[in-house]
Design a protein that fits this description.
single chain, 441 residues, alpha+beta, Immunoglobulin-like, five-stranded antiparallel β-sheet, four-stranded antiparallel β-sheet, transmembrane, transmembrane helix
Length: 441
């Protein structure tokens, strides 16, 4: 119900479409994530707007995301697969310019301070203004590089891919090496075989528009204590006062989180009027997990009344893993992939329509029964110590030979010299004593 083809598809075509869904909730973000991403492009990161992509600059953004979408495009001549790559980033312009000018953060000099005129100030310090008119930035300021040239590998029929589209909000002015084609508030530039850089200057500050309320608000949490059982609680809130929301909730849980379907509960927490709770859960698909083979698949279609709050909950048991199945940092816990909420739209034509929005919740952290991984280490250390002591004692008894001190042979040079002198003097005294005894006889 969540990932369904939308558009004019026949039933036979839908049966031949297969989808594989996966998630990596604990995948760390690194600059190396950009390397395989750029390899999918025809010119890699050498030309076109892809030349602006730098792993360090992208990771330094306030927020960034990467996506690779593969979809089928059909015409009269047939169908073909298309690959769509997208990168979104939220960049703090002032911070990015400061990082470009100096890698080490330095306080601004007094001549670069934008002071608030209505507040008191002293020499070298004042109350700063965050945004002022006249602020200018360019691609080279933000990314420390410009676009070197167009990607010549692009085929003529895809010539539109060599264009740069820039949306110009009110109060901004664009400066470019050559003129572009304006379409309402968007200017289109055709990339050529020389460098391209764009400068944007703020002429007049515009008030920030207020965001419209979201279609749905979702909170997902895990409850329970101990290492045996637990529960998942999901709360759906419809902020609209007049329209209801139809959505599909998808959970892909690992096999070691054993879900009990009979504990599934749907509760209406609040609403504008009386609501029949049996109408909230409209459809349910459940596929139980198989140990070490597949996870649990739970998919529910829900109806959220206007200004209503619905709670979905179920219980689970925690399985015991083999010691080889634990990650290196087992005491931290296991990351549970986010749930996927697909907001549907009312469609009276009978065709499969594109969903209004797709929302992902935050991931969860599951603590499983964890063995004492330090115990084998302690046993190895203790056993090795006992073996070393026993082996050392037995080895000394087998290879050592105990002799009187006067019969021991010296080993050092000084000891040998002293031994030779003492031996010579002993032999000399023995001869003198023998001669005296012969004279007496």
């Amino acid at each position: 119900m969540s990932f369904v083809p939308w558009g004019n598809f026949t039933s036979s075509e839908i049966e031949d479409i297969h989808l594989r869904h996966a998630a990596l909730p604990g995948e760390p973000i690194c600059t190396e994530n950009l390397t395989p991403y750029l390899k999918l492009l025809p010119c890699k990161g050498k030309a076109g707007i892809a030349a602006l992509l730098d792993g360090h600059k992208l990771s330094d953004a306030q927020w960034q995301s990467m996506s690779v979408d593969i979809f089928s495009s059909c015409t009269k001549d047939g169908c073909q697969l298309k690959l769509l790559q997208r990168i979104d980033a939220v960049v703090n312009v002032d911070r990015a310019i400061r990082r470009t000018e100096s890698a080490m953060p330095l306080p601004p000099t007094p001549d670069k301070l934008n002071c608030h005129q209505s507040k008191s100030a002293s020499e070298g310090s004042c109350y700063p203004i965050r945004y002022v008119a006249g602020t200018a930035w360019s691609l080279s300021n933000l990314f420390n590089r410009d676009i070197p040239r167009a990607c010549t590998v692009v085929q003529p029929r895809h010539a539109h891919l060599g264009e740069v589209h820039i949306f110009v909000p009110p109060g901004r002015e664009i400066f470019a090496p050559y003129d572009g084609v304006w379409t309402q508030r968007t200017v289109n530039f055709k990339l050529l075989d020389h460098q391209f850089d764009v400068k944007v200057e703020t002429r007049e500050l515009q008030p920030i528009p207020t965001n419209s309320p979201p279609l749905i608000e979702v909170q997902r949490s895990m409850a329970g204590y101990g290492h045996e059982r637990g529960g998942v609680y999901v709360t759906f809130t419809n902020p609209s006062l007049i329209s209801s929301v139809h959505l599909v909730y998808l959970e892909s849980l690992p096999w070691f989180l054993k879900t009990f379907l009979h504990t599934l509960k749907v509760t209406v927490v609040s609403s504008n009027g009386p609501v029949d709770e049996s109408s909230i859960l409209q459809d349910l698909k459940y596929r139980p997990a198989i140990d070490r083979k597949r996870g649990t698949h739970l998919e529910a279609r829900l109806w959220i009344p206007p200004s209503g709050t619905v709670k979905l909950s179920w219980e689970f048991d925690k399985a015991i893993l083999r010691y080889t199945e634990y990650p290196p940092d087992a005491n931290r816990g296991f990351d549970i992939a986010p749930a996927i909420i697909t907001v549907l739209q009312n469609n009276e034509t009978g065709l499969r329509s594109e969903p209004l929005a797709t929302v992902r919740t935050t991931s969860l952290l599951l603590a499983l029964p964890t063995p004492d991984f330090s115990m084998p280490y302690n046993v190895i250390i203790l056993t090795s110590t006992v073996i070393a002591l026993a082996f050392g004692s037995i080895f000394n008894l087998l290879v050592r030979r105990f002799v009187p001190l006067n019969e021991a042979k010296p080993t050092g040079l000084l000891e040998r010299l002293i031994y030779m002198i003492s031996s010579a003097s002993s032999r000399l005294r023995e001869r003198v004593r023998t001669r005296k005894m012969e004279k007496v006889d």
